[in-house]
Write a structure and sequence with these properties.
mainly beta, Jelly Rolls, seven-stranded mixed sheet, four-stranded antiparallel sheet, 1 helix, about 5% helix
């Protein structure tokens, strides 16, 4: 129960006024080719006190709290199981070199689905001068949540907020440049 509460709280932090939960999913086909989809998850319902929730969002099996070093890169990797990735602090930059795919910037409070379990995977850089903290939440039995595909590609709401108070773009880096991969 506590796990579900943490997950819902994280989701509500950045989607307080939305009618539906919208997030980017990074997926792979049977041949290992990666692609993004913009997903819409079930409608929010009014919470009994204040706020909103997505009841029964997904069945999860556990949660890992991950601490990523400043200015680090994970290189090519893929999740062992489809999972929800919640960035609690810091900044993540997801790329798939030579694929033609857009770059995905994940800022504090942003949520995405990592389900590129077949093939080479993706590269994630953490370009800030401070640690990044994240939750990795595998879906139970690898079952993705019910969703509607809004469009192919990244949901731009994943990395922006309406009031612009949370910097989540390359511009927020200032003098700090994203890492480059020498591989």
């Amino acid at each position: 129960m506590r796990t579900e509460a943490v997950l819902l709280l994280s989701l509500l932090v950045w989607l307080t006024y939305a009618e539906h939960l919208t997030l980017t999913a990074l997926l792979s086909d049977d041949d290992g080719k990666l692609f993004y989809e913009c997903w819409e998850i079930d409608s929010f319902t009014k919470y009994p006190t204040v706020g909103m929730a997505v009841p029964d969002f997904a069945q999860v099996s556990n949660i890992s709290w991950v601490v990523l070093p400043p200015r680090s890169t994970e290189g090519y990797h893929k999740p062992p199981h489809p999972m929800l990735f919640v960035l609690l602090s810091g900044l993540a930059h997801v790329t798939v070199p030579a694929s033609g795919l857009e770059e995905l910037w994940i800022g504090e409070g942003d949520v995405m689905i990592a389900a590129d379990t077949i093939g080479k995977g993706h590269i994630t850089d953490y370009p800030l001068d401070k640690e990044s903290h994240a939750l990795q939440i595998p879906f139970k039995d690898g079952t993705l949540p019910a969703h509607r595909v809004i469009k192919a590609g990244i949901c731009h709401s994943t990395v922006t907020v309406e009031d612009g108070s949370r910097p989540t773009s390359p511009e927020m880096l200032g003098d700090q440049q994203p890492l480059t991969n020498s591989a």
